Amino acid sequence: MRAFLDTPIPRPLIEEILTKASRAASGGNVQPWQLYVLTGDALHRFKARMVERLAQSTEGDLPVEYHVYPHPLKAPYRDSRFKNGEDYYGLAGIPREDKAARARFFANNYSFFGAPVALFCLIDRQMGPPQWSDLGCIWPP
User: What does the alpha-carbon distance between residue 40 and residue 125 come to, in Å, rounded to a whole number?
Assistant: First the structure.
């Protein structure tokens, strides 16, 4: 289960981490990422907006521009993902058939599990899988 302390992170520490991360290697030194940090009031406003958006969604989650997993996801990956979901919601005491409770619990993703800082790493839409893999080079710095 994910959960974080709500202890504020000093701004100089965030800046140090992001400065080091920004020097990560990337193919052709393109460094295709843009990093955004939300803390304090900005983070609270973002979380409130996400609560509104989720309430407007009939699916319990927001629509996506691309699929996170291949469709159809085949064994052994589907089996592993299924077991992980069963274990995750089982630990939370949410039965498989309670889809509404699962959707509410899933919404914790949009509150960052209580973390005091949200980091967003964006990449230009023209970039493809090789540049997406560059993103993995910046964490951890």
Answer: 29
The residues pairing with 122 across neighbouring beta strands, listed in sequence order, are 34
pLDDT tens digit sequence for 59-115:
666 667 777 888 899 999 999 999 999 999 999 999 999 988 988 888 888 899 999
Point out which residues pair with 119 in neighbouring strands.
Answer: 37
Residue-by-residue DSSP string for 97-138: T-HHHHHHHHGGGGGGGG-SEEEEEEE-TT--HHHHHHHGGG
Is the pTM above the cut of 0.85? Answer: no
For the domain made up of 11-138, give the CATH fold. Answer: NADH Oxidase (3.40.109)
Give the torsion through C-alpha atoms of 93, 119, 66, 55, to 10 deg: 50
The two structure tokens encoding residue 76: 């052994």
Q: Per-residue pLDDT tens for 112-131?
A: 999 999 999 888 889 988 88
Q: Is 25 exposed, middle or buried (0-12, 13-18, 19+ CB in 10 A)?
A: exposed
